[in-house]
Give the backbone structure.
Amino acid sequence: MEVRLRTGRPLRTRRRRPDQRQPRFIAPALLIDHRPAVVELRHRVGDWDGDLITGRLNQSAIATLVDRKSRYLRLVSLPARHDAQAVRDGLIAVLDGLPPTVRLTLTWDQGAEMACHDQIAPYLSEGVFFAHPGSPWQRGSNENTNGLLRQYFPKRTDLSAHTEADLRAIEERLNSRPRKTLDWRTPADVFREGLAL
């Protein structure tokens, strides 16, 4: 009798370590090591961390953009799909609505949804950068904000049910919430100060 694993497969599949994964992008991508050093200091508004929050069975998603200095949040609606073209179009629409002075850098993980990163890069004066595989702490602002967002977008729910109005209301709620890390100022206040510089 043939011995099988609990999953029904005859053998375990060997998994690659994060640092051995193949690149997912055709266009060359810049790792976080090439990002301007000033981004790490959080001294200026306009350096964004980005990610996807996915819903039930990864069939729905919302993209999140968080400014590293102010923790100001922008949510990107992806109601129909979240492939590279949909993410590109959603991010460009949001970035295009921001003043050029606060469109400096974007840091993302190496998800396939960013395969069109070279088409997003022209909207950021200093470019798009990618965290090392399996290193979510390199985009800590975004990871922490995604944790806050899960109270509004629980895991295993259909995120396409949330309207644009819903997303704007949630943005407003989090951007108006005082943060200890900002000396009890709100992300909106710190972001506005950065706009005025």
Notes: Helices lie at 38-41, 84-96, 117-120, 140-149, 164-175, 187-196. The first helix runs from residue 38 to 41. The mean pLDDT is 89.
